[in-house]
Amino acid sequence: MADLNGFDPGISIAQARASSADRSLAALASKERKETCTDAELQEASEQFESLLLNFMIREMRATVPESSLLPRSMAEEIFTGMMDEKIAGDMAESGGIGLSRLIFDQLKPSE
């Protein structure tokens, strides 16, 4: 039921977050060229990016679990699951995640 009139809520939410994270990183990169951004802004952008990647990973992992024909998934359940995956990915990124946000932060931080 994920393809109800061509609308997949999980993909739409993820695409919106991806474009938001891309804009954040692009804005920070251009801002860094003009003037240095604060460490807090850079940390936030790198955590958003890691959260986005973790969300993709969680969603793909969930797709490998076979669905039961006994209880088909409803659209509400798909939306809730997508939102729950986003929250889990965000919490993982905030608590250190897989270390990607730290690497991005170190790479983009201007050397003093």
From TrEMBL:
It comes from the Bacteria. Residues 60-107 form the Flagellar protein FlgJ N-terminal domain. InterPro entries: Flagellar_prot_FlgJ_N (IPR019301). This is Flagellar protein FlgJ N-terminal domain-containing protein. It comes from Desulfosarcina widdelii.
